[in-house]
Design goal:
70% helix, 169 residues, rod-shaped, mainly alpha, 5 helices
């Protein structure tokens, strides 16, 4: 399996092994960054090689005393030019795939962070279906406190009238 395929299979995050994912993330991102740099270098070399082949062929065809358009038409049909152009296309695809993988691994890092926040907020705990975040938990605690407080209004919570006592001074 190629490095590209290996790193793609490692993208999935196991929420039960976030500690392992956190340990591996920077190392893999660094390796992928190195591959991106190598792919950029290969792309630049292929581009330069295409320019050299094109210039050499153009000069060769121009020696036959043809117009620039005719010489360029011969250049784009030449086997060496087509091979160099294919090489450039392959390098471009390779670079795009590595850049895409690099961005995916960066996004994976943010996802690990978000999963860590969810675990911190006990989203995955057994009672998480009723209270999913700290703010919801806080609202639940405030509501419970309000239930224990005596009601200051004219009618109680169960809608039965209370006799108001006069405050004597």
């Amino acid at each position: 399996m190629s490095d590209l395929a290996t790193f793609r299979t490692m993208l999935r995050i196991n929420k039960n092994r976030l500690d392992d994912a956190l340990e591996v993330q920077p190392e893999v991102l660094d390796r992928i960054g190195q591959k991106v740099a190598a792919a950029e270098m290969a792309f630049d070399e292929a581009k330069h090689s295409l320019e050299v082949v094109e210039a050499r062929l153009f000069k060769t065809y121009k020696e036959d005393k043809v117009t620039d358009k005719a010489a360029q038409a011969e250049v784009v049909r030449d086997r060496d030019y087509i091979a160099a152009l294919r090489s450039l296309g392959d390098a471009k695809i390779d670079l795009a795939e590595w850049k895409s993988l690099y961005e995916a691994w960066k996004a994976r890092g943010f996802s690990i962070n978000k999963l860590g926040d969810l675990f911190h907020d006990q989203y995955f705990s057994t009672d998480s279906h009723s209270i999913s975040s700290r703010s919801d938990r806080r609202r639940g605690e405030e509501a419970a406190r309000d239930e224990r407080r005596p009601y200051a209004g004219g009618i109680s919570r169960d809608e039965t009238p209370r006799v108001r006592r006069r405050i004597e001074e």
